[in-house]
Design a protein that fits this description.
- The structure is a single chain.
- By secondary structure, this protein is an all-alpha fold.
- The protein is 71% helix and 0% strand.
- It folds into two domains: 14-119; 131-247, Alpha Horseshoe (Serine Threonine Protein Phosphatase 5, Tetratricopeptide repeat), CATH 1.25.40.10.
- The chain has 13 helices and no strands.
- Helix 1 (15-22) packs antiparallel against helix 2, helix 9 (164-180) packs antiparallel against helix 10 (184-201) and helix 10 runs antiparallel to helix 11.
- It starts with 14 loop residues before the first helix and ends in a 14-residue tail after the last helix.
Length: 262
């Protein structure tokens, strides 16, 4: 399982929300936005994105994210707001398809298609839309070529608008595709760039996945160190991301009782 990301962020986020989010305290961050989310569509969408990201890292709390997103959808009045809500809807459906109880591919594709119809070609929301389309192509449709094209568009667009967190995600996913194609050096470059950005931003909850990814293309001794560092960080954050915690600390098989009974 690889990490799949949302690029919630921007100048309208308070430092407190960012600090909580970056440590994996999504509930607390969402509570800070609750007072304005009832009347401000932008705050409602920001809150929904936080709770969808929580689903991505915990594989839980689905209904809370759904409720927050329905509030954002109901309050969306402008084309940009409707596009943002549709993009979030597509991402939640994608995350639920990968980590949740059922396949929601059709919903994800339909919502991202609505987003595309609502956004002008040069809209600031395009890079995030392209990234999420890449996720669907790679992990639900298993079309690496389409994923690569979408990730490249997202990567270049994120650079134009200065969204470094999104670039940390695009670096990682482009690197994963490079690794799958046998291009180890290119993969190493991308994984290292992703890790550097996350460390510089202080996106602590996203550092462990970046460490584990870099370990995949590192020499044996360095790989052991990177995985150990990732495991310590996951433990310090309470076991998130859950899918990475399982991979770094697999549950051992139960020991047989002394008398040999199962």
């Amino acid at each position: 399982m690889s990490e799949h990301g949302t690029a919630l962020g921007g100048s309208n986020k308070t430092d407190a929300v960012w600090r909580l989010r970056s440590r994996g305290c999504w509930q607390e961050a969402a509570e800070l936005l609750r007072p304005t989310a009832e009347t401000d569509p932008s705050a409602a969408l920001d809150r929904a994105e936080l709770l969808i990201e929580q689903c991505m890292f915990t594989a839980a709390h689905w209904e809370q994210a759904e409720q927050a997103l329905r509030l954002a959808e109901a309050g969306a009045a402008t084309a940009d707001q409707r596009a943002g809500a549709a993009c979030s809807r597509g991402f939640l459906a994608y995350v639920a398809s990968v980590l949740g109880p059922r396949d929601r591919l059709d919903e994800a594709q339909a919502a991202l298609g609505r987003t595309s119809a609502l956004l002008p070609p040069d809209a600031p929301g395009r890079p995030l839309l392209d990234f999420r389309r890449g996720l669907v192509a790679e992990n639900l449709l298993h079309d690496r070529t389409a994923a690569w094209i979408a990730y490249r568009r997202a990567h270049e667009g994120a650079g134009r608008i200065g969204d470094e967190l999104l670039r940390s995600y695009t670096w990682r996913h482009l690197a994963s595709l490079s690794l799958a194609a046998g291009e180890t050096e290119r993969a190493r470059e991308g994984f290292r760039a992703s890790l550097t950005i996350r460390e510089e931003l202080g996106f602590t909850v996203g550092v462990a996945p970046a460490l584990a990814a870099l370990a995949e293309v590192s020499e044996a001794a360095e790989a052991v160190r990177l995985r150990a560092e990732a495991a310590r960080l996951v433990q310090a954050l309470g076991g998130v991301p859950v899918w990475l915690a399982r991979r770094l600390n697999p549950v051992p098989a139960p020991a047989a009782p002394p008398d040999g009974r199962a």
